[in-house]
Amino acid sequence: MFISFVLLAFLGLFACLYNALVTKPEKLRSILRKQGIVGPPPTFLLGNIREIKKAQKSPTQDATTTQLLTSHNLAATLFPFFEEWRSKYGKVFNFSLGNTQILYVNESEAVREITTCTSLDLGKPTYQFKERGPLLGQGILTSNGAVWAHQRKVLAPQLYMDKVKGMINLITESAITLQESWKKRIDEEGGVADINIDEDMRSFSGDVISRACFGSNFASGQVIFHKLRALQEAMSRKCLATGIPGMRHLPTKNRREAWGLEKEVRNLILKVVKQRVEGVHEKDLLQMVLESTQNSDLSQAETDRFIVDNCKNIYLAGYETTAVSATWLLMLLASNQEWQERVRAEVLQVCGGQIPDADMLRKMKQLTMVIHESLRLYPPVSVVSREAFMDMKFAGIHVPKGVNLWVMVLTLHTDPELPHLYMPFGVGPRVCLGQNLAMIELKILVALILSKFSVSLSSKYCHKPAISWSLILSAQLNPSMAATIPLFQFVPTKTFQTKLQTNRLLRPTKQRGNIGFSVITCSSNGRGPDSVKSVEQLAEEKKRAELSARIASGEFTVNKTGYPSELKNGLLKLGVPREVLDFLFNWGDMQQPRLKIPEAKGSVSAVQNEAFFIPLYELYLTYGGIFRLTFGPKSFLIVSDPAIAKHILRDNAKAYSKGILAEILEFVMGKGLIPADGEIWRVRRRAIVPALHLKYVTAMINLFGQATERLCQKLDTAASDGEDVEMESLFSRLTLDIIGKALFNYDFDSLTNDTGIVEAVYTVLREAEDRSVAPIPFWEIPIWKDISPRQKKVAKALKLINVTLDDLIAICKRMVDEEELQFHEEYMNEQDPSILHFLLASGDDVSSKQLRDDLMTMLIAGHETSAAVLTWTFFLLSKEPRVMSKLQEEVDFVLGDRIPTIEDMKKLKYATRVINESLRLYPQPPVLIRRSLEDDRLGEYPIKRNEDIFISVWNLHRSPTLWDDADKFKPERWPLDGPNPNETNQNFSYLPFGGGPRKCVGDMFATYENVVALTMLVRRFNFQIALGAPEVKMTTGATIHTTEGLNMTVTRRIKPRIVPTLEVPAFDADTSVGVSKGDSLVGQKGI
User: Fold this and answer.
1) Any bridge partners for residue 629, and if so which?
2) Strands 927-932 and 948-952
3) 200-225 burial by CB neighbour count: b if 16+ within 10 A, else e?
4) Is the pTM value of this prediction over 0.85?
5) From CA 392, how far away is CA 403, in angstroms rounded?
6) For site-directed labelling of 920, which of 10, 416, 737, 879 has its Cα 20 to 30 A away?
């Protein structure tokens, strides 16, 4: 009996599936075929999805910007499959997405009847609700019948023109906020700024709709807005799987993410609703939705769903279409200079320097024409879709129940045979309710932008629009898809009234002193026009390609192998959707509610022959901002996302320790400031930070100058003798001398002497570096440190250093005891201005061991990082003579021939930017190490306690998504008059000294030290890579070192002398009189 029941159930399920997948679709196609309507033959389960995907992926010849901008006919580019099918099957044909049958209609009479049909038997496709349920629900965009009619009755009056006029102030506020942010950035970047406007346009339109929908609950509305954006992105993946039965029920990663976000959005909206019910009533869209539910027959659950779904619909429809339309509108104005000037002239004439109001907007005829033309060429919605819920007839075409109709707006708008069809907001009863609001937004935004800025297309612009299939109504032209990035280049104009003729189009550089604004859209590979590449660039590209090939080959990343993997790849090639395969092959993972961090596996040998952060960069480009890297039994989380770095370093810093870094450095630093955690770190930081006060730093600048002067004398000798010098070791000795005096008033004199203590310090430094990258902690083997010659040497060096430090501490204590101490915040002993003296004078009651740990920590940190920064700065300058020349000009002007002072630090702006940029390209250290002390969430991924984490500063600083020309040395990227770049004003994409509470305490000390050394050296000498020197390659210890040193040729600078012109009587020269060598200008030394 049981077997019979199971068999019967199976047969019933099979019959249902066969009907849904085969019988019903074929019946609909048969009805259409009898009318002569045919189309591309569908495949089982997928329909025509494979053909569409193949057409989208097929390579097309790249056209230039000029070629594409002459016509703006995008139908063939964006919908090649529709163009092919239309030429083959006519203006009306049938195709399939899964088992969903779609009737493509491009015949004018049929289009008119479909779009103006008032019957409730024609409505929005049911698959929109089924497939986009978490995003759209059953709001006004997806509902049908009586439910839709009720929703329209509630919402439409709130978006009539008289109500929209009341929103002009809030729209203007949002536009001015955007305008001011652009102006600020222009000022910071020296008059011209490249700005990614795609997100700015979305933020503007989202800001407007948030205020319109939620009124005083605007802040909560912004949170909901960001959650909806995340939900939209999650729902946009694999959208061409629409129509395949059961796909929406598979608990794939994307769908589980979408379900979670849907719940969060629902709770946030209902929370605002509760606050509104209990608070003051407002006349906004949310209030109208709430009032419409009063005295209704809906249950509480139905009421909540009604409110939530319509709030989501208003949000999504209100921000997406306006943002996309604004982007394309500005692009068209940038490419049509004449019309830009005409619109600007109209705006200035109508507004007269005032903020536009409703009456002014009505008078802007030219602007209105431009907006309509932009909407014709780039309609925000490219496809209008409907579904017949009953058998219907349009223009003699019998449309059976269940068939979907697609009207291609983009094709209709550019078809020369249909010159009068214009429907950017739809037409008929389901015309967009927000068209008045959208038009007002576009008018205000463009009017304010053109009144302040000029706009032109950059030479880097590559015109490649793409389609977002998942958005509100149907396929939508989207400038941000397919990795295209719209950018604007700005310069501020003078006023509304003055010199309109100078407000012409700005190319990528300034012209006639005016200020320009250009739209730049990078091609899908993120590159601009081809240019001639240097040998170094070609070598770098080759090196990166080789590394990518190694990653692809599995040297770093080891994918699962075996029969299941081969079977999955085979089915994928046959066209089975990836979502289905992910569900079938990863069922075990789906049982876990936790999202899994992307994982890369590799062998230790893969990173032994190069700096380990280089493979991490390539893996970051492959796996994203966070992934797990596994070496055997050990794994690390690699973080290259500024938001996650900010969370770890600042927002939740208490939940993370120094982890393995403290373990590695314990032998030399003990419980010093860097490795210490918890209460010990807090106590020591409070004691040490006050020692770095302004008076101390001022005194140190003189110390920096004196030490650098000794290095200059050494280089002067080398220049006289014509000898090349190895600069990395010299910089290391320079910074060792500086930090010795600064910390405990000890003169290592390492630039001239190789004493036992200097050798001991370097022995310990090399050991610390080696341990930081060693895969196995062999030094922890008890017997090893007793028999290893190297470990015995390290132990001996440590003993010498500790004895020396103990002696210095004892001497300093006696000095403090003997002086008449009057300690205060800026206390400093003139004979001994060291940090050690300050700590002892402050009454810091700690053991000699703790003091020794602190001093050793600062000795290593202060010496290593500054030496590395100077090394790579001079390497970069040797490659960029232009930067060196500009730097020397500033130094000559500010310093002349003297040692810098504290007052000069503010004047040496370009020198500071050179150091800033050097730290970006060669951060010291290239990674920050942490360990989680508790469970936490990094981005969307939960993590457990005791996770070891590498924050890759190298990846952050060179990320192509965070920086323009990320691999180029461009000190000018930092405005001279702007703030000094740091983790805060760069939003944790720039971490030269870390960030958060554990940021380096010596950042000012290090910056001034590097600036003084840099300026004094370039004032006296020119530096070039020595002929025959080995290639400068990187290796990693605690900081980034060279593999074989930085060998340079140093020559004295010869400044041009000023020779006065003297008026002397003419005389006959006696050629017998010679000039001695001693009197020859050529024989004199340069400065």
Assistant:
1) 600, 636
2) antiparallel
3) bbbbbbbbbbbbbbbbebbebbbebb
4) no
5) 10
6) 737
